[in-house]
């Protein structure tokens, strides 16, 4: 579903990712863990084409993300190509970024009606199903300001799902929440992981959740994968000293 090959990314003189390669299989639930500043968020932002890349190659759903084929040649992607590729991916951020002057329902229907040309009645039906799924069926006509942080984050998840992406990216979605609101958001994500065959990438500091959620965990440090494996390996029998040191500090 995703193929990252020799990816590098610098911000000015700062090299954040250097020769990074990994693949993500269809339906796989992948957790990216590691110290702050190790490049995890940058990877998700690159996949969402919110950042460009300095080198390497990424394929999403079998097509190059930042390149395209034209007249038998590989050339940099134009805006139309990026727009098409973005359709494959939905992202939920640490800060929910709901539209403050729209109702919950409108927040969810806006993109499908505007960018996909869905009929309003169809978009609303789907939005209500998604709200039901995230446990907020009774909040369709609320304004974001009337919701708790956990509820806003669940609306943000429903909004991303409304575009039916094949891949969902979750970037520290619980780290801005009060501790008592974390669980309700994790439950929604766990349900999605179990009930759908969506490919999901999760950046998190919630190690307990990463362990439950992920098929595979990548431990990053300084823009490189130090260790990758099933959660049982990473959390119970890490092979690398750096992984052990990180987990000792965080758990
Ligand atoms: P993580 O998600 O693992 O905490 P990030 O991907 O957010 O790490 O950041 C990796 C490094 O890149 C950090 O040193 C951060 O300061 C730097 N960085 C991220 N975005 C930018 C940016 N837009 N401009 C300059 N530096 C950035």
TrEMBL record:
Membrane topology, record value: Peripheral membrane protein
Sequence intervals crossing the membrane: none
Keyword Cell membrane among UniProt keywords: yes
Cited InterPro entries: AAA+_ATPase (IPR003593), ABC_ATPase_HisP-typ (IPR030679), ABC_transporter-like_ATP-bd (IPR003439), ABC_transporter-like_CS (IPR017871), Ectoine_EhuA (IPR014343), MetN_ABC_transporter-like (IPR050086), P-loop_NTPase (IPR027417)
Subcellular location: Cell membrane
GO cellular component, one term: plasma membrane
A GO term for molecular function: ABC-type amino acid transporter activity
UniProt xrefs under SMART domains: AAA
Ranges where the ABC transporter domain occurs: 2-247
Gene3D superfamilies (UniProt xref): P-loop containing nucleotide triphosphate hydrolases
Keywords assigned: Amino-acid transport, ATP-binding, Cell membrane, Membrane, Nucleotide-binding, Transport
UniProt cross-references to SUPFAM superfamilies, sorted A to Z: P-loop containing nucleoside triphosphate hydrolases
Similarity comment: Belongs to the ABC transporter superfamily.
Protein name, as recorded: Ectoine/hydroxyectoine ABC transporter ATP-binding protein EhuA
Organism of derivation: Paracoccus amoyensis
Taxon lineage: Bacteria, Pseudomonadati, Pseudomonadota, Alphaproteobacteria, Rhodobacterales
Gene behind the chain: ehuA
């Amino acid at each position: 579903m995703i193929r990252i090959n020799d990816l590098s990314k610098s911000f000015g003189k700062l090299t954040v990712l250097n020769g990074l390669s990994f693949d993500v299989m269809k339906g796989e639930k992948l957790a990216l863990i590691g110290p702050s500043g190790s490049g995890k968020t940058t990877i998700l932002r690159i996949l969402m084409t919110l950042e460009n890349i300095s080198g390497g190659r990424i394929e999403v759903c079998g097509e190059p993300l930042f390149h395209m084929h034209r007249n038998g040649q590989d050339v940099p992607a134009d805006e139309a190509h990026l727009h098409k590729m973005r359709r494959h991916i939905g992202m939920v951020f640490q800060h929910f970024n709901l539209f403050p002057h729209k109702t919950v329902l409108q927040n969810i229907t806006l993109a499908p009606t505007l960018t996909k040309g869905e009929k309003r009645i169809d978009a609303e039906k789907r939005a209500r199903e998604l709200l039901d799924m995230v446990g907020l069926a009774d909040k369709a006509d609320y304004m974001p300001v009337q919701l708790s942080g956990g509820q806003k984050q669940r609306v943000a998840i429903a909004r991303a799902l409304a575009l039916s992406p094949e891949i969902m990216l979750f970037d520290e979605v619980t780290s801005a929440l009060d501790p008592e609101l974390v669980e309700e958001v994790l439950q929604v994500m766990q349900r999605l992981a179990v009930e759908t065959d969506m490919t999901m990438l999760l950046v998190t500091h919630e190690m307990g959740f990463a362990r439950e959620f992920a098929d595979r965990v990548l431990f990053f440090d300084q823009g490189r994968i130090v260790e990758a494996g099933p959660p049982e390996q990473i959390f119970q029998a890490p092979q690398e000293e750096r992984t052990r040191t990180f987990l000792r500090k965080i758990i």
